[in-house]
């Protein structure tokens, strides 16, 4: 489908639909979910995902916190385009604008995969937050000559309007979303999660947003800035992550002055969707150590 996702039809069974609302901020209309009360936590999903990614972790965190999640620009049910495009600085600035509109000053930014990179870019660009938590954080560029090759391929795919449509058509007809997720992430997730990913990946505009985000991603620039990140950074990583090797995160930890890493055995790139309880426990334990 080349039309935007429709909240009334495509979103009728969306996880935690009752927690959803739509907020105009900047040049976008954001799909936002919120639950709980207390210190504010902001959740940033990864490339190709949406708020459904937090369906298990969000209620656990909301027991003692006000938790806010959103579909990032180009993803899910959020509409519009940031002034800086779907680049890392553009996404970071757009999220900061949304939080300003919501009058939220979070205690923690919690990002999964590329969402962790957005959180750290926000900090380097002046957004004040005491702590960043990265779940299976994607912080390192592809090595050597593979970086421009990958970005060049992503740009070529974005420029060809048929590619997102063909990708979406394949996702809709193959029925292989679950196996694709296992191969690409090393994670086995529940049926609700597979259905949500299948619906998202079956939409050409969502696929285009994910491809455009990858095409404009400058992780090399972020990595150069990691030594200047003064916030407390805690990284939690699945040992079986097939998308982001643990070694790349170990390198990133060494670059940041106040960073720690915990590796969770038996979990993949979608660790927070596989075992939200274990991820929440790791977050709470690390918070107690640093309190």
Could you please describe the fold and organization of this structure?
47% of the residues are buried. The protein is 43% helix and 17% strand. The radius of gyration is 17 Å and the shape is globular. It has a domain of 201 residues: Alpha/Beta hydrolase fold, catalytic domain (Rossmann fold, 3-Layer(aba) Sandwich), CATH 3.40.50.1820. α1 links the parallel β3 and β4. α2 crosses α3, α4 runs antiparallel to α8 and α5 packs antiparallel against α7.
Short description:
It is globular and about 45 Å long.
Pairing-aware structural class of the strands and helices? alpha/beta
Helix fraction bin: 40-55%
Main sheet properties:
9 strands, mixed
Name of the CATH first level of the domain at 17-144 and 218-290: Alpha Beta
Shape: globular
Q: Could you say what the CATH topology of the domain at 17-144 and 218-290 is called?
A: Rossmann fold
Which CATH architecture of the domain at 17-144 and 218-290 would you pick?
A: 3-Layer(aba) Sandwich
Total of helices: 12
Uncertain segments are: 143-150
CATH H level, superfamily name of the domain at 17-144 and 218-290: Alpha/Beta hydrolase fold, catalytic domain
Radius of gyration: 17 Å
* Count of beta strands: 9
Strand fraction equals 15-25%
What is the residue-mean pLDDT, rounded to a whole number?
88
Oligomer: single chain
Blueprint (SSEs and pairs):
Layout: E1 20-25, E2 28-35, E3 40-44, H1 57-61, E4 66-70, E5 79-80, H2 88-102, E6 108-112, H3 114-124, E7 131-135, H4 146-159, H5 162-174, H6 177-185, H7 191-201, H8 204-215, H9 219-225, E8 232-238, H10 246-255, E9 259-264, H11 271-274, H12 276-290
Parallel strand pairs: 3-4, 3-6, 6-7, 7-8, 8-9
Antiparallel strand pairs: 1-2, 2-4, 2-5
């Amino acid at each position: 489908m080349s039309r935007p996702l429709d909240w009334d039809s495509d979103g009728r069974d969306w996880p935690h639909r009752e927690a959803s609302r739509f907020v105009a901020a900047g040049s976008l209309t954001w799909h936002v979910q919120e639950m709980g009360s207390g210190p504010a936590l902001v959740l940033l999903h990864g490339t190709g995902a949406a708020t459904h990614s937090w369906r298990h972790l969000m209620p656990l965190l909301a027991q003692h916190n006000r938790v806010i999640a959103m579909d990032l620009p180009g993803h899910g049910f959020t509409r519009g385009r940031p002034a800086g495009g779907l680049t890392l600085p553009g996404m970071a600035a757009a999220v900061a604008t949304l939080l300003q509109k919501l009058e939220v000053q979070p205690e923690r930014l919690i990002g999964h995969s590329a969402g962790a990179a957005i959180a750290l870019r926000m900090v380097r660009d002046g957004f004040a937050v005491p702590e960043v938590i990265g779940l299976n954080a994607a912080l390192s560029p592809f090595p050597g000559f593979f970086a421009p090759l990958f970005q060049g391929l992503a740009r070529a795919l974005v420029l060809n309007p048929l590619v997102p449509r063909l990708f979406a058509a394949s996702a809709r007809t193959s029925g292989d979303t679950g196996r694709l997720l296992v191969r690409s992430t090393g994670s086995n997730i529940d049926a609700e999660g597979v259905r949500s990913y299948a619906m998202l990946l079956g939409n050409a505009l969502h696929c285009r947003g994910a491809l455009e985000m990858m095409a404009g991603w400058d992780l090399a620039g972020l990595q150069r800035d990691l030594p200047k990140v003064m916030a407390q950074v805690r990284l939690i990583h699945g040992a079986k992550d097939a998308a982001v090797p643990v070694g790349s995160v170990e390198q990133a930890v060494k670059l940041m002055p106040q960073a720690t890493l915990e590796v969770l055995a038996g979990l993949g790139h979608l660790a927070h969707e596989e075992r939200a309880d274990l991820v929440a426990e790791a977050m709470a334990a690390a918070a107690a150590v640093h309190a």
